[in-house]
């Protein structure tokens, strides 16, 4: 049975942009698994799989239905042990949790201030209303206030990525010589920025840019094809 991944898109289903969904897309490709991606608008998500989740990603694999990107990665690791490992062992799971925390609390906080308006502009009207209300309530600021700080957020992004840059001084990927789920966590954040704004807002010769380009080239450049 085909694996189904429910992901997130705006008015154009060909441009899925959720960072958490991109983690899973890359994990599925890493495992060499065939899957069907079904990008959904924000307001459609609660209507699928009998309302199983209000957020994506959601993965359907036969009788299994899993939400949350990290839980999905752990499921794939356990369900498909003969495919390439996403973690490289139990220690890799623990290390990926640290990367997840860094990405969510440091990298995402800067990126969010850059791309909110871009995401809003990608959405259909019904989703624009939902997105504005929910994000302004969550962040405690209007979109206009957030947009006023966009240039400052872009300027802050290189410093927020310094831990990744430090790692890349010693190895090609977060996972070492080859990518692991820790790479896909951080890749998802920058792919989110790239798809929504058209750029990752870093110099081309930055080690993070070079690593990101290597990730875009993985799996026959499938991620690069989405822009």
From TrEMBL:
Name used for this protein in its record: Glutathione S-transferase family protein
InterPro entries noted in UniProt: Glutathione-S-Trfase_C_sf, Glutathione_S-Trfase_N, GST_UstS-like_C, Thioredoxin-like_sf
Domain of life: Bacteria
A Pfam family annotated for this UniProt entry: GST_N_3
Domain named GST N-terminal: residues: 8-84
SUPFAM superfamilies associated with the record: GST C-terminal domain-like, Thioredoxin-like
């Amino acid at each position: 049975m085909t694996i189904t991944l429910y992901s997130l898109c705006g008015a154009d289903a060909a441009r899925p942009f959720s960072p958490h969904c991109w983690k899973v897309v890359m994990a599925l490709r890493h495992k060499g698994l065939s899957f069907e991606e079904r990008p959904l608008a924000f307001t459609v998500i609660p209507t699928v799989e009998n309302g199983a989740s209000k957020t994506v990603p959601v993965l359907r694999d036969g009788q299994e239905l899993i939400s949350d990107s990290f839980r999905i990665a752990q499921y794939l690791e356990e369900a498909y042990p003969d495919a390439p490992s996403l973690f490289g062992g139990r220690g890799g799971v623990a290390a990926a949790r640290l990367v997840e925390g860094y990405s969510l609390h440091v990298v995402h906080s800067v990126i969010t201030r850059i791309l909110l308006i871009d995401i809003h502009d990608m959405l259909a009207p019904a989703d624009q209303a939902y997105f504005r209300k929910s994000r302004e309530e969550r962040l405690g600021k209007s979109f206009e206030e957030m947009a006023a700080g966009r240039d400052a957020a872009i300027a802050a992004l290189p410093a927020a990525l310094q831990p990744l840059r430090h790692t890349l001084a010693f190895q090609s990927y977060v996972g070492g010589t080859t990518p692991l789920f820790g790479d896909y966590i951080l890749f998802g954040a920058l792919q989110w920025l790239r798809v929504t704004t058209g750029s990752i807002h870093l110099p081309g010769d930055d080690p993070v840019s070079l690593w990101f380009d290597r990730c875009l080239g993985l799996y026959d450049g499938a991620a690069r094809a989405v822009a």
